[in-house]
Amino acid sequence: MGELQRLFFDPQIIWETLPTLFREGLKNTLLLAIGALVIGFAFGMVLALMGISRRWWVRLPAVVYIDIFRGLPAILTIALVGLGMPTAGFRPFGRERLFYGILALGLISTAYIAEILRAGIQSVDKGQMEAARSVGMTYMMAMRLIIIPQGLRRVLPPLTNEAIAITKDSSLVFVIGLAAGERELFRVGQNIGQQTGNFSPYVAAGLVYLLITIPLTRLVNVLDKRLREGRRVATAPGAEELPASVEVQP
Amino acid sequence: MTSKTRWILALIAALALLLTACGGGDEGDTSDGATDADGGAEETEATEEEVTEDGGDGAAAGDLGLLNEGVITVGSDIAFEPFEFIQDGEPAGFDIDLMNEIADRLGLEVEYVNASFDTIFTQLAAGDFDAIISAITITEERDQTIDFTDPYFAANQAVAVTTDGPDVASEDDLAGLQVAVQAGTTGLDYANENFTESTIVEFPTSEAAFTALESGQVDAVFIDLPVVSARVETSENVELALEVDTGELYGIGVQDGNAALRDALNEQLADIIADGTYEEIYSRWFEGDVPEQFRTGDGASADATEDATE
């Protein structure tokens, strides 16, 4: 038992690992995850709108993109972007390896977020669009002012899930090579773990991941609850017996 | 048959083909050393009598503390040409040939498990393998968690650059450059200690490091000299810039305290060097003379041992 504790929960090693984890690892993990989510949200929204188009040739590129990037393992996409692209002579970020990582993770989250947003938009009752158009709004206006705000609220929980997933996937970026200062949480933990021959630094890195992901998980639950209860308060008494109309696809 | 069902059938057929194709590939990947032993069989015949005389086969009967009876499970990061790499779906290279020869003389089959160099020591200590052979430099630090056999190779480190890259004539020229190294290696330790003015970039494999060099993502790769030499041969724009004399020796790793296996490996290693088989394996993968300490004893020239690949 003592041996296990020494190997995984050596308090001194964990304590000594934490400063590097926070200063370097956490910073880079957040940079990767937030950067990827910004890209993912921007392009995911475009793909979501393309995906609900009535014209097949508008839908097709969105469907193909989503199928490909949702179907590939994250580590493969990261290697293709971070190692393959520069080899092919396409080096938009020079040697900023983290930016290649952000781009790769962004491409992946674009596919997932597009599907989440599409589901959210389509969950809004058709009557909303019809009403908006009947008071003279254009299609795009109705989307922007009426449909998307409602749809977005409903998919906040799955969007938060995607944030958690991308935070965890950011650990795969180490395959494209990271210099000191560029290491994310996992790599920092692994480095120190190898130097000490002890797994406590991995555990320490895990704790910092949980520090990000558990609050996000709680947030999902709070959002989820508020969405449901918010509706109940807003409707007439007795309406709560009705089944929830919102079915959000993951 | 409607056109729709025909499409579905075609799709199923295509999928089935794909799956069988993948299945074939997998077989190659699992790198079962049993089939590999054929390659080493030829040169074994000549020495077989001697081996039995030495009681080499008897050693196999003793308890070597192996994971599986009659099989030695060997961990290796098989991405380190010319020591270990995948050739035609099978592990190949100097380390692999040497290990096959040793196992053959011990009457054991070899099973190679492809591992990440990063974690190979902890995996050995955790009991995933009986031994590890992976161009592993013997260091005091590593010797604390595992046991090493006698050295079987002398290797220096080297700096590789691209032909159109910066001129590196001395270690000082690396200042300000981005230098790729493999994570968890002695090269990394050396670089961290000595190339303090450079940005050290860690890659999980040597191949990824060279890919980054060739694509211009780093300025130089710092890694074992024979690996640089092998890459220079296969790559159009990589060249050897600088040899760094670190006096490193490779050993085979066994679990801490498994003296029976270590002694058995040492015994065979000594025989392989003494009867000239080592030279024969060496010449398959490297040019030039075998370093003195690994020669058959007679006729050794006074040359230093360092120039393994010159």
Overall description:
The complex is a heterodimer of chains A (250) and B (310). The mean pLDDT of chain A is 89. Chain A has a single domain (2-233), classed as MetI-like fold, CATH 1.10.3720.10. Chain A is mainly alpha-helical and 250 residues long. Chain A has helices at 2-8, 11-51, 56-71, 74-87, 97-123, 126-134, 139-154, 156-169, 185-196, 200-234; one strand at 178-179. Helices cover 76% and strands 1% of the residues of chain A. In chain A, helix 3 (56-71) packs across helix 5, helix 5 packs antiparallel against helix 8 and helix 6 (126-134) runs antiparallel to helix 7 (139-154). Chain A is globular. Chain B is an alpha/beta fold and 310 residues long. Chain B has two domains: 31-152 and 251-294, D-Maltodextrin-Binding Protein, domain 2 (3-Layer(aba) Sandwich), CATH 3.40.190; 156-247, Periplasmic binding protein-like II (D-Maltodextrin-Binding Protein, domain 2), CATH 3.40.190.10. Chain B is 43% helix and 21% strand. Chain B contains eleven helices and twelve strands. Chain B has helices at 3-29, 33-54, 56-61, 94-105, 120-125, 140-145, 186-194, 206-214, 225-234, 259-274, 277-285, and strands at residues 71-76, 85-87, 90-92, 109-114, 131-132, 146-148, 153-162, 178-182, 199-203, 220-224, 238-250, 253-255. In chain B, the strands form three sheets. Chain B has a five-stranded mixed β-sheet. In chain B, strand 2 and strand 3 form a beta hairpin. In chain B, helix 2 crosses helix 4 and helix 4 (94-105) crosses helix 10. The longest helix of chain B has 27 residues, at 3-29. Chain B starts with a helix and ends in a 25-residue tail after the last helix. Mean pLDDT of chain B is 80; it is low at 22-61 and 298-310. The chains are: A mainly alpha (250), B alpha/beta (310). Strand 1 (178-179) of chain A pairs antiparallel with strand 9 of chain B.
